[in-house]
């Protein structure tokens, strides 16, 4: 399965003309979950909505990682011997499977140099990004959108300062 954490935390963005929420209705949430390998049951929908809010708050630093405990505490793996060797199977209650997967993906992005998942640095952006750069220094979810706007604002401010200095 493809990673889903970034899609999940970016599935609700509030724009000036209103929110865009890919989990906003049960039908939309069911489609979203099914496209990611889930059944789209009511418990999965509730779990996805709940973990999304908690992970967004954790990633933004608004709450501690302890808020992830409801998913971490139910995560279990069982080993099974097969003809090909040992296989590991997740044993998570149905009502926490979506969240457990998202929390596991989040945990894999934590490291000694900090988190690889973070909010976009643009003050007017609500997107999250996963930084795959060697230096772990990426700032914007999109260089074309947020990065260019930030650079344009800095250029405008420098131009204004230069013009003011030359005018004095």
From TrEMBL:
Q: Name the Gene3D superfamilies for this protein.
A: Jann2411-like domain (1.10.3300.10)
What residue stretch is flagged as signal peptide? none
Boundaries of each Zinc finger CGNR domain copy?
Answer: 116-158
Which superkingdom, per the lineage? Bacteria
Q: What is this protein called?
A: Zinc finger CGNR domain-containing protein
